[in-house]
Model the fold of this input.
Amino acid sequence: MAGGDHLDEVLAEVGYGRWQVPIVVFSLAIHAMIPVHQLGSTLLSSPADFRCSRPHAAPAHAGNASEGSGYQTDLPAFDLPEFPSLCLDPSNFSAALQPANSTVNKVSLTRLSTGIPSCPEVEYDTSVFSSTIVTEWHLICERTSWRTLFPMMYPIGSLLGSAVGGYFSDRIGRKLTSRIGILLTLPTCLGITVVPWFSAMLAMKALAAFSAILVFYPAYSLAAETSPPRHRGSTLMLLALAFFVVMTGFGALGYLVKAWRVLWLLCNVPLLLAVPVVMLIDESPRWLIQKGLGAEAAAVLEKAARQNGVQFSSGITSYLEKLKLMNAGSGATGGGGERQCSWVEGVMSYLRSPAMRTVLLVTPVLWLFQRMVYVGIVLSANNFTSNSPFEYVIISGGIGGIAVLLATPVMAKLGRKTIIGGALLASTVMLLGDMVVPAEHWWLKWILVLGAFSLSVGAFQVNYVFTAELVPTVIRTRGFTLCNLVGCIGEAIVPVVTEVATRYAWWASSVSFGAAGLAASLLVILLPETKGRPLPENIADVEDRHNSLKNRDTKPQTEGV
Done:
């Protein structure tokens, strides 16, 4: 693995300094933008209590449904909650029937025409939100099922964005893909704040998710590939920390900003920083070497040394001189570059390698199970934290940030496999343990669920670093794409468990997510440890690492014989 070793030696001498600042700032801005795209529906499309009225008639709670309809509208008006969230049509099974808070403050309301047969005119409780996606487009009664469309746009756009971004990042470079992605993200995110039609807003949301993920993985790969080996893990964990810090701030900002369009706009402010900074970043020298652009890679590394104020040693200087003589397509070590071939030939070449086959088959499935655990606990944890959406987001973000902070120093001491496998196994024990705790010991159930959540967050973020170190440079972004695509399948399974399976079995969530955590903790055993190893550049590097680890494991036995 001579080429990879030399490049890590160069980056070690370059160190961390002014050259990496634009790259890290850009990556932080992208990570700070993602929470509102992925988790924004918690506040942006939060339902509000309402009351329906017939045009120029008494409110719905005055008693206009037949007896036995299940709406309890036969009670006197003064005994009903201020906003019962009941529709006028008793045959509408999709109506929001949960009782409202009878102590809600009375506020000045405006009766709005909806065009909904069971709720021709509606008044919303604006004591929590002045406007949400639900109240703006009246996603109540017959339209209640439409609420799922807004959060669904993120995984749809993410799937497409990760596939396109992964391909172009490995083909045309991290820098150019990032610039294209960020220039697409800005107008789509701004468009959501002004578009007046629900269908157009959904389309803009999908496009915003597409463009955001289009730039997310190239930015992440660029941050990983320009970090010195000593600081690579902590740099990538810092990016994860930014996600949870902004997630906490999103909850706090939502408490102050009650209008969803304003909240969306404010949460996309990092774009204003990312657009100019992306013009200052350099291309990944690893990618340039894999494309046979040795002279360009050497120029980037020399620029990095100048900006960081360091002098290369004679050995590194000699290596850079050899890079300058590299012809396009020759690769980092002579013949190790990516040969131009068809897509099918490329896939088959990776699958013919035993080590690469293990990485490409096991890692995506690991992401599937781990995404199930992580997202599953997120969607279920609200029952153990608070009924307030603001507190839910703040607590989740705070716990996630603490988990990342604790995992970062631990990752420097322990191997990636140990942390991921151990954390997921412990998370499984906590989830299954929650099933046997009596309901009266709510505080213990609360500790178990949040403890499982924090462990899953730590394992999830370490797995990001682990995946970057498993997949070679020639397909690193596409490797992330594959993992994200399969992981989205696991994320799509979660609502089936939490919303459907739990109707028939109360233990479905704990057993399903616990089993997923157990499966993930076993799968990680099949992958090689990457702590202290240089980033692989190509298939040969992955094979060399696999063989060296196998020889190390068998050597004591040979000596014993």
DSSP finds 21 helices and three strands in the chain.
